[in-house]
Amino acid sequence: MLPFIRHDIAGLTAYTPHPGEGAAQPLDPLDTNESPYDLPDFLKSALAEQYQQMIATNRYPDGGHGALKAAIANYVTESGHLPSPVQPTHISVGNGSDELIRSLLIATCLGGNGAILVAAPTFSMYGILAKTLGISVVSVERNAATFEVDLAVAQQAIEMTQNPPIRVVFMVHPNSPTGNALTDAELSWLRSLSEDVLVVVDEAYFEFSQNTTVAEALARPNWVILRTFSKAFRLAAHRVGYAVAQPPLINALEKVRLPYNLPSFSQAAALAALTHRTQLLASVTETLKERDRLAQQLSHDARFQVWPSQANFLYGRLSESGLPALGYTDPAAGLADIFQRLRSHGTLIRHTGGGLRLTIGNPDENRRTWENLKKVLAVTAAVNR
Ligand SMILES: *Cc1c(COP(=O)(O)O)cnc(C)c1O
């Protein structure tokens, strides 16, 4: 290890987003919850023209994100059915919501100022980014049957954690990888937290769930929601996310971010996506239909347990009877084996949080997911017997 690198960095591994690379055949990329659909041709052409005619590559981007913030504010108001309009002062824009997560950590916990609380299994990036900043992560469990947070344990963690105390609670709504939305009990617990603790509600899958806590973020000084253009808006390539909160918190985020954090072309793409949102978001309906169809198919296989999902993915584990039926003794090893075999059949999913997470793709991909899974389970049952 280089002598000038922090010791705690030595223990970390770099994030490898695409385990699909180097595969013998093209894989259905159903591991990162992207939309299966590229932007429509007319919108790509319009963006290409804008690049040619209007974007001066020798100039820095709009570092204040003025036009984009106004358009986002408008969309947040409309989609949240809010009585009074959200203002651009309620919005901060990031290079993906990943950047906003890091900005939140810098603004709250860095330098021994605080720890974070997460409920596992959940989005891995909170823990990964916290660790790169030397911020400690307190992880509480979820109920194994419903994936609800154990609120008594969470409350105890808040009360007992000292030096530094928990400053931020991260929740995904609906959660990834498990697909469940925050319950009323979880929401009232979050509302009951002291204003010394920041509540982050990550609504990356809002367009699929239509479930939002944006009104809380506008009403409470210690509440922020995160959203992204990487999922339903079909814009993962452009890395655009945003935060909605009261202006004092937004100001703090604006202070710690990089000055030109969002390239001009990404700003243009996000603006175009918002302008044409009705058309782009029409694919959400199909995804939900496909999700429910695949869930229905999977539910007929007693070796699997698949949970209801509010998002564009499904989460499953081997059932109690599935483990011996497939000849496995260890659930984790069984899932790892199924993951690998699915991959060699061309379906790339995620093995995470003690289960398998399958992104809903286009109808052909979903058909292959189902067929490949049937093949894999038939072979596994025969081989292990
Ligand atoms: C996909 C996802 C994000 C999106 O991150 P970006 O950096 O905007 O691409 C954020 N949070 C959760 C929970 C996600 O699943």
What does this protein look like?
The protein has 385 residues and is α/β, with parallel strands linked by helices. Helix content is 43%, strand content 16%. The chain contains 15 helices and 13 strands. It has helices at residues 7-10, 41-53, 66-79, 96-108, 125-132, 151-160, 184-192, 206-209, 214-219, 247-256, 264-275, 277-299, 322-325, 331-344, 363-384, and strands spanning 28-29, 91-95, 115-120, 137-141, 166-172, 198-202, 223-228, 240-244, 304-306, 313-318, 347-348, 350-352, 355-359. Strands 2-8-7-6-5-3-4 form a seven-stranded mixed beta sheet, sandwiched between helices. Helix 2 crosses helix 11 (264-275) and helix 12 packs parallel to helix 15 (363-384). The chain is globular, with a radius of gyration of 22 Å. The mean pLDDT is 95. Bound molecules: pyridoxal-5'-phosphate. Pyridoxal-5'-phosphate (PLP) binds next to helix 4.
Name a few traits of the molecule.
385 residues; alpha/beta; 7-stranded mixed sheet; 4-stranded antiparallel sheet; 15 helices; binds pyridoxal-5'-phosphate
Quick summary of this structure?
Helix content is 43%, strand content 16%.
Note the main sheet.
Answer: 7 strands, mixed
> Helix count, per DSSP?
15
Strand order in the largest sheet: 2-8-7-6-5-3-4
Radius of gyration: 22 Å
- Roughly what fraction of the amino acids lie in strands? 15-25%
Q: Which percent bin holds the helix content?
A: 40-55%
Number of strands: 13
Contiguous runs where pLDDT drops below 50 for at least 5 residues: none
Following the backbone from N to C, one meets helices and strands in this order, namely HEHHEHEHEHEHEHHEEHHHEEHHEEEH
Could you say which overall geometry the principal axes of the C-alpha atoms support? globular
What distance lies between the first and last C-alpha atoms, to the nearest angstrom? 47 Å
**Alpha-beta content class:** alpha/beta
Mean pLDDT score, rounded?
95
Enumerate the distinct ligands: pyridoxal-5'-phosphate
